[in-house]
Amino acid sequence: MNPSTICDPSGAAAAELKEIFAYYAGQRDKKDQDVIVQMLKELQEVNGFLTPELKEQAAQTAEVPLSLISLLIRTYPSLKEAAYTHVITVCSGERCAKKNGRQIAEIVRRELRIGKNNLSADGTCLLKTQNCLKQCRTSANFIIDDVLYSNIKPEQVPDILKQALSAQK
Ligand code: FES
Hints:
The chain is an alpha+beta fold. The chain folds into two domains: 11-75; 83-167, Glutaredoxin. It is built from seven helices and four strands. Strands 2-1-3-4 form a four-stranded mixed sheet, with helices on one face. Helix 1 runs parallel beside helix 3 (52-62) and helix 2 (33-47) runs antiparallel to helix 3 (52-62). The longest helix is centred in the N-terminal third of the chain and has 15 residues, at 11-25. The chain is elongated. Bound molecules: FE2/S2 (inorganic) cluster.
C-alpha cells in the first residue's frame, strides 16, 4: 500500500467530495445559507463527519468566511465535526520509506484500526500523512500530536502508540 493514500480520502470518496465542491462552486446562490448547509450535509454523508480541511474548502467554495461555516455547524445538530483528540502524522517521504516507513504506517493503521475516514475505531485519533517531515536524517519518523518520534523501527510502533496516547489523554 502506498502510504500517501492512507490519510486522504481516496478513490471513490475523494472523487465524490471533489464533485460536490465543483457542483456548489458553480451555483449562483452558493452564499445562501440553505445552500451551504446542503453542501455540508452532502460532504458529511460522504466523509462521515466534517474535518477542518472540509470546512475550509467549503468556505472557499461558498466564498464565505470560515466562521460562518462553523456557526452553521453549531446551529444544525445534524452536522457533525470530527471529535478526535489526537493527530498522528506518518511520513510518506522517500527517506522514511527506505527505512520501513510504509510498514510503520501500516502498523499504525492496524493498531488503531483506522477506517476509511482516517479515524481510529474509537474515534479519538486522526491519521494523516505528510510527504517528508523535514527530519530525514533521523528516518523513519512520525509525529503524535506535536511530538516527533525518530529512528523508529516497525516493532517499536505498538508500544510507542500505547505510551504516547495514554500519556496524552
Ligand atoms: S522523508 Fe521522512 S522526514 Fe524526510
